[in-house]
Amino acid sequence: MPAALRGDVDRSASNSQTTQHALGRFLASVELKAFRIAQAALRHEQDALDAVQDAMLQLARAYADRPAEQWKPLFYRILENRIRDLQRRRSVRDRIMAWLPFVADDDEVLDPLATAPSPELPAVRRLELDEAIAALERAVGALPRRQQQVFLLRTLEGLDVEQTARAMGCSQGSVKTHYFRALRTLRAELSELI
Amino acid sequence: MSACDSSPEFEHRLRELLERQTDAAGGHVRSQLTQARHAALLQAGEHRGVWREVLAGRRRWVPAAGVLAAAVAAGVLLLGPHRADRSPPSAGATAVTAQDLPLLTDRDGLAMLEDGGGQFYEWAAVQGRGGAVSGAAADGPSEHGG
Questions:
Q1: Which residue from A24, A57, A194 is facing B13, i.e. has the nearest CB?
Q2: What does the DSSP assignment read for chain A?
Q3: How do the domains of chain A map onto residue ranges?
Q4: Given 1.20.210.10, 2.60.120.200, 1.10.10.10, 3.90.950.20, which CATH number is that of A113-194?
Q5: From A138's CA, which of B4, B74, B135, B140 has a CA 20 to 30 Å away?
Q6: Which positions 70-129 of A are in contact with B (Cβ < 8 Å)?
Q7: Which of B10, B26, B55 sits opposite A111 (nearest CB)?
Q8: CA-to-CA distance for B3 and B8, rounded, in angstroms?
Q9: CA dist list (Å): B20 to A107, A137, A173, B132
Q10: DSSP secondary structure code for residue B87 in this structure
Q11: Which pLDDT belongs to residue B137?
């Protein structure tokens, strides 16, 4: 192999390692939020984990070479598609399961770490916070799906209107409308608690 | 949007609660997410590694295998319809070929042909047809009788 080409290949290997480190940092920064967004939409922990894992794999396989600033909207777009697929699949599964006798779901095991109280807060304050979080979770869960996703992408993930529109595959005007309606509903539901 | 609906304090409070809820994710969720991340990075590394090795010439067989696969596919496409039209060879045809093989490889037969043995074969053909058996023919060709 010519020396010039070998040099190109070495540079390419070095760039590849840099990209991989950057991708690792990016995925670590979004994985928990992505999980919460998926969980709010799917209301099933394992399905949410599967959706996030699939989105990570797809991003790494197909879009790792894209500029890093494009990763976030792309990642959430993939996640959004995956959530929709899982919801469709689940609705089919539910229709089938409705005809079958009830079987307990062994996957739903309570996580003691997740349910353990946080040690640094006084008990009363902790109780208030837990109540507020539970109420927020219920209210967000009850939002229409598009409003819910726009609200979480903007509030939790901090995407701007344009990035949210790209992630959701809709117009910026649509994002603004969904976000406004979500906020209005949440305010009506939670103004006394929050 | 009214000022009430877009209150930054309310949004800030919501964000705070959401982040707190996110940070409270259980150990097994974090562990599974970490595993998923590593799997994704591994896959990205492998995907890029293959192309780097192709570029570096360490996997020269990859393009060669692609060309070979394309050639095989083209061959199947081109020959496929003709193969369908073609009927399989009959057992009889195969048998004749097998019978002819010793004749073709027989050196004596070839020598006979070169030495003017054509008359012998004419005689043999007449015998085979069961035609009129002349005296000369019945005795065989005089030149060959020797």
A1: A194
A2: --HHHHHHHHHHHHHHHHHHHHHHHHHHHHHHHHHHHHHHHH--HHHHHHHHHHHHHHHHHHSTTS-GGGHHHHHHHHHHHHHHHHHHHHHHHHHHHTTSPP---TT----HHHHSPPTTS-HHHHHHHHHHHHHHHHHHHHS-HHHHHHHHHHHTS---HHHHHHHHTS-HHHHHHHHHHHHHHHHHHHTTT-
A3: 9-100, 113-194
A4: 1.10.10.10
A5: B4
A6: 111-114, 118, 129
A7: B26
A8: 9
A9: 25, 12, 30, 116
A10: P
A11: 47
Nearest Cβ partner for B33 among A31, A137, A194: A31
Q: How far apart are CA A96 and CA A84, in angstroms?
A: 19
Q: Residue with structure tokens 């922990």? A: A45
Surface-to-core class of residue A186, CB atoms within 10 Å of its CB (0-12 exposed, 13-18 middle, 19+ buried)? buried
C-beta separation of A104 from A112 below 8 A: no
Contacts 24+ apart (CB under 8 A), A10-17: A12/B52, A12/B55, A13/B52, A16/B45, A16/B48, A16/B49, A16/B52
State pLDDT tens for residues A176-188: 999 999 999 999 9
B20 touches A: beta carbon within 8 Å: yes
Q: Is residue A49 within 8 angstroms of chain B, CB to CB? A: yes
Contact A80, A169 (CB under 8 A): yes
Angle made by CA atoms B126, B129, B135, in degrees to the nearest 5: 40
Residues B88 and B85: their CA atoms lie apart, in Å, by: 10
Query: Cβ contact (<8 Å) for A49 and B57?
Result: no
**pTM tops 0.95:** no
What are the residue ranges in chain B where pLDDT is below 50? 1-5, 84, 92-94, 132-138, 140, 142-146
| CA nearest to A182 within chain B | B5
Percent above pLDDT 70 for chain A = 80
